[in-house]
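Technical note accompanying the year-one report. For the benefit of new consortium partners, we illustrate the data format agreed upon in the data management plan: each record pairs a sequence with a structure-token string. No post-processing was applied to the example shown here.
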Amino acid sequence: MYVHVYYEEHNNGLKFITSDNEMVKSYFLKDISSTFRRTPTNQLQVNISVKPTYRTRQEFIELLMKKLKEGLIRQLEKAQQKISEVDEKTKLLKDKNIDSERIIEEKLQ
């Protein structure tokens, strides 16, 4: 079950409020909007303002696995970019080190 509780910050706590004359919005997880995202920590982020979509559990499994795969591909692309940046920084640091060593050796002569 997926439950949204409507509230707003109030002084040092929370104040429960209504939205469309309801204090909560609940539906089965399998029916969350297909616009949800999976975070790298495997949490699902759902837009509260998007209406749920009825689907079978089988359809939800397929959607969830599709989102999981898309998220993993994004993580892989980010990791590949970071690896590329490390390679570039390594080359830059090695080149600067060579220049620095050359300057030091010239001053010592």
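Partners are asked to follow this layout when depositing records. The mean pLDDT is 92.
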